[in-house]
Amino acid sequence: MKSKERVKQLVEELQLLPHPEGGFYKETYRSLDLVKTPSGERNLRTVIYFLLTSENVSKFHRIKSDEHWFWHEGSALTIHILEQGQHQKLSLGPVTLSQSFPQHLVPAEKIFGSTVDEEDSYALVSCVVSPGFDFKDFELFNKEDLLKEFPNQEAIISRLT
Prior knowledge:
The chain has helices at residues 3-13, 143-149, 154-159, and strands at residues 17-18, 24-30, 34-37, 40-43, 46-53, 58-62, 66-74, 77-83, 86-92, 100-101, 103-106, 111-115, 122-130, 139-140. The chain is 15% helix and 47% strand. The protein has 161 residues and is mainly beta. It has one domain (3-159): Jelly Rolls.
Protein backbone atom coordinates (compact mmCIF):
# COMPACT_ATOMS: atom_id res chain seq x y z
CA MET A 1 0.00 0.00 0.00
CA LYS A 2 1.36 3.42 -0.93
CA SER A 3 1.96 6.05 1.74
CA LYS A 4 -0.88 8.39 0.68
CA GLU A 5 -3.35 5.49 0.61
CA ARG A 6 -2.23 4.35 4.07
CA VAL A 7 -2.55 7.90 5.46
CA LYS A 8 -6.09 8.15 4.07
CA GLN A 9 -6.93 4.75 5.58
CA LEU A 10 -5.54 5.73 9.00
CA VAL A 11 -7.40 9.07 9.01
CA GLU A 12 -10.67 7.30 8.19
CA GLU A 13 -10.33 4.20 10.39
CA LEU A 14 -8.94 6.03 13.44
CA GLN A 15 -11.34 8.98 12.90
CA LEU A 16 -8.48 11.48 13.01
CA LEU A 17 -9.12 15.24 12.89
CA PRO A 18 -6.81 18.11 11.87
CA HIS A 19 -4.70 19.32 14.82
CA PRO A 20 -4.10 23.09 15.30
CA GLU A 21 -0.32 22.49 15.47
CA GLY A 22 -0.35 20.41 12.24
CA GLY A 23 -1.01 16.76 11.46
CA PHE A 24 -4.04 14.76 12.58
CA TYR A 25 -5.13 13.47 15.97
CA LYS A 26 -7.81 11.67 17.94
CA GLU A 27 -8.12 11.59 21.69
CA THR A 28 -8.54 7.96 22.73
CA TYR A 29 -8.46 8.25 26.52
CA ARG A 30 -9.10 10.88 29.19
CA SER A 31 -8.90 9.62 32.77
CA LEU A 32 -11.78 10.44 35.07
CA ASP A 33 -9.38 11.02 37.97
CA LEU A 34 -8.45 14.67 38.51
CA VAL A 35 -5.29 16.23 39.90
CA LYS A 36 -4.62 19.77 41.11
CA THR A 37 -2.07 21.73 39.07
CA PRO A 38 -0.95 25.38 39.23
CA SER A 39 -3.33 25.93 36.26
CA GLY A 40 -6.31 24.31 37.98
CA GLU A 41 -7.70 20.78 38.02
CA ARG A 42 -6.66 18.53 35.14
CA ASN A 43 -7.42 14.95 34.24
CA LEU A 44 -4.69 12.64 35.51
CA ARG A 45 -3.78 11.48 31.98
CA THR A 46 -4.83 11.79 28.34
CA VAL A 47 -3.85 9.75 25.28
CA ILE A 48 -4.06 10.57 21.58
CA TYR A 49 -3.15 9.09 18.24
CA PHE A 50 -1.09 11.59 16.24
CA LEU A 51 -0.40 11.25 12.51
CA LEU A 52 2.12 13.44 10.72
CA THR A 53 3.12 13.31 7.05
CA SER A 54 6.25 14.54 5.32
CA GLU A 55 4.11 17.21 3.61
CA ASN A 56 3.30 18.97 6.89
CA VAL A 57 4.91 19.70 10.25
CA SER A 58 3.93 19.90 13.89
CA LYS A 59 4.56 23.57 14.65
CA PHE A 60 6.58 24.74 17.63
CA HIS A 61 4.42 24.73 20.73
CA ARG A 62 4.60 24.20 24.47
CA ILE A 63 2.39 22.47 27.02
CA LYS A 64 2.50 22.47 30.81
CA SER A 65 2.72 18.68 31.20
CA ASP A 66 5.11 15.87 30.34
CA GLU A 67 4.33 14.28 26.97
CA HIS A 68 5.47 10.70 26.34
CA TRP A 69 5.59 9.73 22.65
CA PHE A 70 5.25 6.15 21.33
CA TRP A 71 5.95 5.24 17.68
CA HIS A 72 3.63 2.75 15.91
CA GLU A 73 4.31 2.71 12.18
CA GLY A 74 5.62 4.54 9.14
CA SER A 75 8.90 6.43 9.01
CA ALA A 76 10.80 7.85 11.93
CA LEU A 77 9.49 11.12 13.32
CA THR A 78 11.93 13.82 14.44
CA ILE A 79 11.03 15.72 17.60
CA HIS A 80 12.69 19.16 17.60
CA ILE A 81 13.22 20.79 21.01
CA LEU A 82 14.39 24.37 21.56
CA GLU A 83 16.00 25.19 24.90
CA GLN A 84 18.85 27.31 26.20
CA GLY A 85 19.60 28.66 22.72
CA GLN A 86 20.04 25.17 21.27
CA HIS A 87 18.12 22.90 18.88
CA GLN A 88 17.96 19.27 19.99
CA LYS A 89 16.61 16.46 17.77
CA LEU A 90 15.17 13.15 18.98
CA SER A 91 14.39 10.38 16.50
CA LEU A 92 11.18 8.50 17.28
CA GLY A 93 10.84 5.29 15.28
CA PRO A 94 12.08 1.74 14.97
CA VAL A 95 15.18 0.91 17.01
CA THR A 96 18.21 1.48 14.80
CA LEU A 97 21.90 2.14 15.08
CA SER A 98 21.19 5.77 14.18
CA GLN A 99 19.76 6.40 17.67
CA SER A 100 16.08 6.06 16.79
CA PHE A 101 13.95 4.72 19.61
CA PRO A 102 10.25 3.73 19.80
CA GLN A 103 9.51 6.11 22.68
CA HIS A 104 10.68 9.51 23.93
CA LEU A 105 9.67 11.87 26.70
CA VAL A 106 9.27 15.59 26.07
CA PRO A 107 9.36 17.19 29.54
CA ALA A 108 6.79 19.81 30.54
CA GLU A 109 7.36 23.42 29.45
CA LYS A 110 9.71 22.56 26.54
CA ILE A 111 9.21 24.27 23.19
CA PHE A 112 8.93 21.53 20.59
CA GLY A 113 7.58 20.49 17.22
CA SER A 114 8.06 17.53 14.92
CA THR A 115 8.69 16.47 11.33
CA VAL A 116 8.72 13.37 9.16
CA ASP A 117 11.94 13.81 7.22
CA GLU A 118 11.60 10.90 4.77
CA GLU A 119 9.93 12.07 1.54
CA ASP A 120 6.41 10.86 0.68
CA SER A 121 5.96 9.24 4.07
CA TYR A 122 4.18 9.48 7.42
CA ALA A 123 4.51 8.51 11.08
CA LEU A 124 1.75 7.26 13.35
CA VAL A 125 2.44 7.75 17.05
CA SER A 126 0.59 7.94 20.34
CA CYS A 127 1.13 10.65 22.93
CA VAL A 128 0.41 10.26 26.64
CA VAL A 129 0.18 13.56 28.54
CA SER A 130 0.26 13.67 32.33
CA PRO A 131 -1.28 15.65 33.93
CA GLY A 132 -3.75 15.41 31.08
CA PHE A 133 -3.77 17.69 28.06
CA ASP A 134 -5.96 20.77 28.12
CA PHE A 135 -5.96 23.39 25.34
CA LYS A 136 -5.77 26.04 28.12
CA ASP A 137 -2.19 24.79 28.68
CA PHE A 138 -1.27 24.84 24.95
CA GLU A 139 0.88 27.67 23.55
CA LEU A 140 1.60 27.90 19.79
CA PHE A 141 4.60 30.04 18.79
CA ASN A 142 5.24 32.41 15.90
CA LYS A 143 8.53 32.96 14.11
CA GLU A 144 9.21 36.47 15.42
CA ASP A 145 8.86 35.55 19.10
CA LEU A 146 11.04 32.44 18.79
CA LEU A 147 13.78 34.27 16.88
CA LYS A 148 14.06 36.78 19.75
CA GLU A 149 14.88 33.93 22.14
CA PHE A 150 16.72 31.66 19.67
CA PRO A 151 18.39 33.91 17.06
CA ASN A 152 20.84 31.18 15.97
CA GLN A 153 18.05 28.71 15.11
CA GLU A 154 16.43 30.57 12.19
CA ALA A 155 16.33 27.59 9.78
CA ILE A 156 14.35 25.23 12.03
CA ILE A 157 12.20 28.07 13.41
CA SER A 158 11.27 29.12 9.86
CA ARG A 159 10.35 25.53 9.05
CA LEU A 160 8.23 24.89 12.17
CA THR A 161 6.31 28.17 12.51
